Amino acid sequence: MQKRYLSIWFKYLLPDALAILRPELKELPLIIVVKERGRQLVKYCNDIALKEGIKTGITVADARALVPDIILEDYEEGSERQLLKELGEWCIRFSPAVAIDGNDSLLIDLSGCSHLWNGEIPYLKDLLNRLKAKGYHVRGAIADTIGAAWAIARFGKEKAIIPAGEQYRFLLSLPPAALRLESTLIQRLHKLGMYRLESFIDLPPSVLRRRFGEDLLLRIAQALGHVEEFLDFIYIPQPYTERLPCLEPIRTAKGIELAIAQLLDALCFRLRREGMGLRQALLKCYRVDGRMVTVSIGTHKPSHHMGHLQKLLGMRIAHIEPALGIELFILEASGIEPIELSQQAIWAISSEADELLVIELLDRIAMRAGKNAIQRFLPQEHYWPERSVKSVTNLDEQPSIPWSVYRPRPTHLLACPEPIRVTAPIPDYPPILFIYKGKKHIIKKADGPERIEREWWLEAGEHRDYYTVEDEAGRRYWLFRSGHYHHQQDQWFLHGFFA
């Protein structure tokens, strides 16, 4: 198959991207500034600034002298490559082979793709029009070689398509810069009066090599197709998805179990090879009647242990109703994380295998009781009880501060304290009884008060005086009075239960 390449040149890549994000910049002179050796230089400018006489490489002071009300934006290192990568991923809909070329262009291998658009002309027109509709100034050219496509896109006609094998004829009228040469080499050619390729492209290689070196010969050969160039194509990771079509509809739990095993075998093989682990997975079962049944699983830590994942999915088989039969299974790993390899000390009491067994046990409990049945809490640097702990899902996260052991805290802390009616003697004495949800609790033992001040830097309000109390049935509670003692206006609350 004859190779065909498309070069797309973004003349004002970063300025156009800024104008897309901030439409008010489209009608204003804009420059992107880079700091170099203590000076501010123009790295890029938009078309309006270019028409005003601003060029890349001049100082910001000179640019202001030309256009006093010019808009300045700071340059971020590597922003061109990141933007081109995103544009390249978007262009993959036109060809699976897209590569980044320098800091302002993309190269597409369109071999075998243009017929889907009924030819190269509608192919090129559709692609460029879509990019222009996004807000980019673009030019493109198609040729047999990368070098010829690059040259025509910048120095030839807009939307140029070079017929197969005719790149030599179209290159003759172009300047030496069309060969992707260094600026010093271009200046040497200009000094000798060689302003177009036809002036030197047919000279003997020995003469060109002696005067200008190997780089010029290499670029000519690449443009004419005598030397092949290789591209580093953009790679988009394939989704972690496995499909299993069935020759006969599956109706039994054993059949579904075997299908899950086959899907997990392929998925876990890829996860192990890439050092990744599964956190969430979705199994889609497409039935003969056109309906789809889904079940999902989750893990506390990334895992590619097939036996464990198969047990988790096996616990969901009872929720799959096959009806007339399932003809297609799709297993999607919707949550993937890297698996960190750790070195186990030989003198450690607990081994990594023991920790893995505990984590897998937690996964199975969560599958039976619900994903919110198991929660892990860590201490936080707050005095207010509601803020003193936080819920975490990552089992590897370590506490930033140690747990407080100064005063006991209830096993079950209510998210919002609930009001209660209390009978208490003189101030600072513990209550003698309280009524909660219509039930009276006679207090036999009490400890307190423990005063906890409100965090004034977060919110205003009263302090709290906490009491740990035990009723006649031996049940223990955590009560508090909000603010100082007032005979008729005391506000008491129940905030937690001890085990």
Give a structural overview.
With 499 residues, the protein is an alpha+beta fold. It folds into three domains: 1-236, Alpha-Beta Plaits (2-Layer Sandwich), CATH 3.30.70.270; 250-355, Dna Ligase, domain 1; 413-497, no CATH class. The chain has helices at residues 13-21, 47-51, 60-66, 79-91, 120-134, 146-155, 167-171, 183-191, 205-212, 214-224, 253-274, 306-314, 352-369; strands at 5-10, 30-36, 39-45, 71-74, 98-101, 105-109, 138-143, 160-161, 241-250, 276-287, 292-303, 326-338, 376-379, 389-392, 412-423, 433-436, 439-452, 464-471, 476-482, 492-497. It has a six-stranded antiparallel beta barrel with strand order 15-16-17-18-19-20. The longest helix is centred in the middle third of the chain and has 22 residues, at 253-274. The model has no long low-confidence stretch (mean pLDDT 88).
